[in-house]
Write a structure and sequence with these properties.
Elements (H helix, E strand, L loop, with lengths): L8 H25 L3 H20 L6 H9 L17 H9 L5 H12 L3 H5 L2 E5 L4 E4 L10 H38 L6
Antiparallel strand pairs: 1-2
Helix pairs in contact: 1-2, 1-3, 1-7, 2-4, 2-5, 2-7
Length: 191
């Protein structure tokens, strides 16, 4: 279905973002159940990315044009906000963190799991022995034994990220619908 009078480009963008949000939520749940913390943390970072990009549509001059550019294959970080700043991850994270300050520290910690980092070393330690100063590693696709608190914290944070992405999607959708309703009710030129 091509964009037309009923389905404009931002609608398709929102559909894609909504699909991504739901798919990531399912994947995250499956990874937590499988005790695969490194991959679950990376998906948390992706969920934040979705929220940041939806929020960024509120700081561009023309959300329709931004959505069209992305759907046409343009990289999001090459677009600019109304002040001429590139929509880099750092910029759109900072923008969203103005109203949701918890975003920045969570984003930074979760990014350590997206990029190969010291976190991958840390999460492979199964246990340590202080007396012998030995570390024992578990190199497998499953997490070493760890506190349930680690998973609870990740699940709580993922829930907040998903709720934020959903709220931003809904706000964008409602604002678009209201704008289109107002535009449709305005007299046409020459009437």
């Amino acid at each position: 279905m091509a964009p037309g009078p009923t389905y404009r480009t931002p609608t398709f963008f929102v559909f894609g973002a909504l699909r991504r949000t739901l798919a990531q939520a399912r994947g995250f749940r499956d990874l937590i159940n499988a005790r695969n913390f490194p991959c679950a943390a990376a998906i948390l970072r992706l969920q934040l990315d979705t929220a940041m990009r939806i929020n960024a549509l509120s700081i561009v001059n023309d959300a329709d044009a931004a959505c069209k550019s992305v759907l046409d294959g343009e990289q999001f970080n090459r677009l600019k906000d109304r002040d001429g700043n590139k929509l880099s991850d750092a910029h759109i994270r900072k923008t969203l963190a103005q109203t949701h300050p918890w975003i920045s520290p969570v984003y930074e910690r979760a990014s350590d799991f997206v990029h190969l980092s010291g976190k991958h070393f840390e999460v492979s330690i199964a246990r340590t022995d202080d007396d012998t100063r030995m570390a024992y590693f578990q190199i497998s696709g499953h997490d070493p034994q760890r506190s349930e608190e680690t998973y609870f914290e990740a699940v709580d944070t993922f829930f907040e990220a998903t709720k934020l992405a959903g709220m931003l999607l809904l706000a964008f959708w409602v604002a678009r619908h209201q704008r289109e309703t107002v535009m449709a009710s305005m007299p046409k030129d020459g009437a």
